[in-house]
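thought: fold this chain, then report.
action: predict
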Amino acid sequence: MSESTTAGPRPAEGAAAAEDATIRPFRVDIPDEALDDLRRRIAATRWPSRELVTDRSQGVQLATIQELARYWATEYDWPWCEAKLNALPQFTTKIDGVNVHFIHVKSPHAEALPLIMTHGWPGSVIELLEVVGPLTDPTAHGGRAEDAFDLVLPSLPGYGFSGQPTESEQERAAADQLATFRTSGFGYFLEQATRPQTIGYALLDSPVALAAWMLDHDTDSYEKISHAFLDGQPAGHLTRDRIVDNVTVYWLTGTGASAARAYWESGRAQALAAGQAPPAVSVPVGFTTFPDEIFRAPHSWVEKAYPNLTYFNEADKGGHFAAWEEPELVSEEVRAAFRSLR
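observation:
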């Protein structure tokens, strides 16, 4: 039986709900009324005055967000994104009381290796769609059949088309950020780690507030997104359509607040673990560092953190959303990382 999305926040699901491990087919089906409401809200935006500086040091710049809003309300084509998602096999199942949405694409190659790829904030399965073809069918993308994967792309609990937990879950503690990130790009992290419910009111009420909040992640990503809208020069596949696809998924599923709560969970986990050595990582680890990431971990740090490091490479391009920007490059890095483990 197929399921479909509805406008606005979906009912939350908690661990107390009856466990049902049935895997159910899923299709995205957004009603026209939800899209009409989105455009109406964008048109009714009350704009602040322009920033007093020429860079992003005061936040998302007015020209960038106004151009995004104009495009979102007048030119953006959500049905294209919906059709792209529905062209892939999608499913839902209940895990620990929470309904989890995932894309599962099997490779045409018999010896394909099963692989789960997960997104983070402010991403969604949208940022991973362009690696599906290269990883599941490498021979059609210049690769080798022996490098094929059966791919699973889940929407994390509280994100996208997955359900929203009603009680705490322990999340993997976030790595420490460099001082430059803490001073110039740490605002969203601190707010979501301490007051996710407060920012959630704005994220659920105003599509433009949601878009601005998601854009204000890190300087490199912001500059690339800004160029995509103001100059028409996207960084790789980080185009204005795909950027708005991602924001629209958050808006239509009403997950701005629930996604932010993951940072609150992470902050509490770090506090509980304060003074304790992190657990040893014994599994094989492949690690690629990208030049435009928030920080670039050197080989010496990675080797110390992961004693069983089986693959390390420094890519020559890509940033925080590397799979989105450079899907072919990331696909080759994934193939290389797993090649010795097959």
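thought: worth noting. The radius of gyration is 20 Å.
final: tokens above.
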